[in-house]
Amino acid sequence: MKLLVLLASALLAGSAAGAPTAQIPKFTQAEIDSGKAIRELGRIAYENALARAAKATTGCTRDKVRIRKEWRNMTLTDRKGYQEAVQCLMQKPARHKGLDGVRTAWDDYGALHYYQTPYVHNSATFLLWHRHYNWVLEQDLRDICGYTGVFPYWEWGLDCGSMGTIDKSPVFDGSEYSLGGNGKYVAGHQAAIGGARPGTGGGCLTSGPFSNFTVNMGPVGSRDPLKYNPRCIKRDLNTDVCNRWATLRNTTDPILNSADIAVFQAVVQGDGRWPAAARVGIAVHGGGHYAISGDPGSDFYFSALEPGFYLHHGNIDRMHFIWQNLDWENRQTISGTNTMYNSPPTPEAVLTDNMGFEPLNRNVTIKQTMDTVGGTPLCYVYEPW
């Protein structure tokens, strides 16, 4: 592993970097595992992105940049405000028309993710479609529900390995300032992903935020996945999954060891078409999802109806943000087609291709989502935790 770290440093040093190569330090395995490495890489990326914004005279100028924070670094006021704004969307009218199961503005997100799943996973747009998807949610929380705080991410590795357990995480501890707790324990249940031990829940949320709210559509395997099917939100918090696939090492290695976007997005998703990704199993993308698990958290198509989805994908986007801003001039690129695993086969994606977000928001090109401080329309950075 030490050889891989040194190789990553050499690759970064050999590129025409947006940041001086002296800014990319070498890390020991202990520094990677403890989180020191990802904090330092995050600091460099944060400062590089803000430096670019400081040069702008219109659009995303330095004074307009929004700062995204890890959940535990948010104020209690912002944590509570974010959670209440999500609950607000769960009670506002839907924008999708003619879909039986779409009853609320929150359901809109589940329907959009359902429709787009075959095009925005293991494809050229995985990272950038989900980047804009989170941004659209941020706008809805502000414009529809009046939330004025920061948008969160969840660094999974702070709640597994030697760092703790997920049911003690401030994101999922069931407190007033969390996104609710675990589901009721179901004896004898199986883990959502093969090879892992079962989580510590499995049933309905019994207390805390979201225990009184419903999932209105799905699951994907039903005869009509978009039919109205109200049921409780379930969770099965699983530290074993996090320990295997979403530690601080799992977060850091793709950033250090991916020379191009094809490898980076493959390793983040566990896309076995690339040898480097074939060794990481379900990778951090699957690891974060299945660390939450439950219904709809384990549903590939409808997982966006789980409130923790957006903090999880915030951390995926943060990884991409860091990777890009360590070598900005060379990392405004895409790789792949616009269909999952290129099935059915489609042409290679290009930056002018449109990504669909209607009826929630206007459609945007891939290029418009490339820069989080590009101002067309994105204007945010990730603060290191």
Automatic annotation (TrEMBL):
GO terms for molecular function: metal ion binding; oxidoreductase activity. Residues 1-18 form the signal peptide. Transmembrane segments: none annotated. Residues 104-325 form the Tyrosinase copper-binding domain. Gene3D superfamilies: Di-copper center containing domain from catechol oxidase. Pfam families: Tyrosinase. Keywords: Metal-binding, Oxidoreductase, Signal. This is Tyrosinase copper-binding domain-containing protein. It comes from Staphylotrichum longicolle.
